[in-house]
């Protein structure tokens, strides 16, 4: 049976992470444990980060693999991690929300597009960081469209 | 001025035709080789391998042409539509549908483009995939269905007209003039009706009386096709030049005439060359009173010579040689003059691009692609500086010239998708009617007018698509560039 691209299990709130590397690894491990990708995908996420930062702006970073990492992906999945204290993501950017992406086909684009629109409003960033439960995040991201 | 623009338009149409055929020459050659080698009359008859011949020429080649034609008009999406619609003409006609594919392919791509123009921006976020797949599916089914009904009667009408014309000419005894109809008919695969309906029955009659008939030589003479291919070998350029010698061997020695059809189809004025070659060949046959006792099949020089009766060798060989020579000369003149013109045009198009900053469809074929692509920037290459200003060496385009904005990132799975949704959202609010899509840098479509990338990836995108306008952003989520762009496009 096909898994949900984003489920409650893929969301971790208020995680006490301190470094960029740790954050990427944590975001990736959710995808590994969920059975979306193999362990090699995390290396590819670091590789992609070397190539160009996945920091998107508005305290949001979207760590994901390189193009050739698509072979490490079993199923399309998205993970969400919030770190309200923020993590230095390089180049003076402070990231607080991490969206891990493993895309095989295009199934994730719909939800990603929602995430983009939600996160482009700064007040929504506040809402995400203040969320008390995973459901709140799910609701926020599925509300648009 | 008007003269130049008409010429440019004709040139552009010409490069369009070759754009449909040229990328598929390899498939023609593959088919030609298999046919020459493995058909029952071939060099190594083999039933199993020979079974490839029919499906390849009926389905593979027209579908490739149809796909390529659609793709030229509207990228991959247009290509898919082109292939679907081409299937309609394939099934509706009983002959290989090269010309039908060359018409239906671009037409279907264009239809999709028009329909997307009406609907795509009205589709709600999240429903794009659904819309894309179903609109293409419905339109494709419709076009293929229509084509099935229309193509049959058209082909029949055309065939009957040509056959009637040839019959009149043969009865009047003006044999060389028959080439005017036979040579174009060959290229459209309409020659079977002429052969089996008129030439063969009459030829068999004559051969029963005289032991030979010139009618068997009219269509099977490999000379005209050889001339065209040799002209390409000497005066052609690029793929057509490089592939022509091999094609000539398959055509002249293997007798697979179809292999030269694509070369004529991509430059229809070359019909003059094959007609002139055919006419002079037939005329020479008449002068020498040459003839064959039966139809040589396939039309290879070996088959011709094997059937030639004693005392006719000089006539048959002369006819073939004269036909090849005349066709070669005419084709050479055509290729040489059009080559000079194309070079002019390439230069002119280059200047035009500089001024307008807009890449036209035609110039895609006239200017060579950039050979070098910057791949895999490592952290060492990365300049650590907070340069938030967009580095735009590429031209800034007029709002009216912008029809497609594409966001690109390395994999096309993350940042570009998010950026594209935001800009699309912004355009929607401002009522701007320009489609925004996202892709991997390696798959950037040729017709993108503006390419938006993260500042670290802009160099790679520029290497891939040097003629597009490039916008470099640092903050995908909230870039001032989005508002700037929206304002610029709104003021048009």
UniProtKB/TrEMBL annotation, chain A:
GO terms for cellular component: plasma membrane. SUPFAM superfamilies: Phoshotransferase/anion transport protein. GO terms for biological process: phosphoenolpyruvate-dependent sugar phosphotransferase system. It holds the Pfam family PTS_EIIA_2. InterPro entries: PTrfase/Anion_transptr, PTS_EIIA_type-2_dom, Sugar_PTS. The phosphoenolpyruvate-dependent sugar phosphotransferase system (sugar PTS), a major carbohydrate active transport system, catalyzes the phosphorylation of incoming sugar substrates concomitantly with their translocation across the cell membrane. The enzyme II CmtAB PTS system is involved in D-mannitol transport. This is Mannitol-specific phosphotransferase enzyme IIA component. It comes from Planococcus glaciei.
